[in-house]
Amino acid sequence: MPFYYKICEVTGINSGAEQSLAKNTQVDSSRWVTLEFDANTNGNLPWQFKPMQRSLKVHPGQLVQVEYEVTNTSDQAIVGQAVPSYGPARAAAFFKKIECFCFTPQTLAAGETRRMPVLFVLDPTMERDVHTVTLSYTFFSTGAKVQAMDLRKAQPHG
To answer: DSSP code of 59?
Structure first.
């Protein structure tokens, strides 16, 4: 047993409180970028859509999660698809999304409100003269008809 403890001590395995968290070496802590969040709906989509926070300062390379909230204000289920845009446009190439509601169509029941996360990283190789990036989403109706019975089947039970 003492030999096992010596190996753990030397290698850092199972050292408990003495272990330090792994540091993300991709984070550029020498600079800040202000992120601004915007939300819109196409005129014929009866949804209310908003970011849960309007802005945030981050270091490029930092893992970031924000949330948007959407409410279907109509009396029927509707399928919508969010389309992102970026300002300045050149920032789009450096915006690396890991999780986003924009990846798939969203079906909201009549009166349903949902919070949806976006998980992303700003690539640290982004030009240093970019100090503010705006992430804007616009939700459009997909035109898909949703039957009430089909929507009930899609909802999780329990």
So the answer is: -
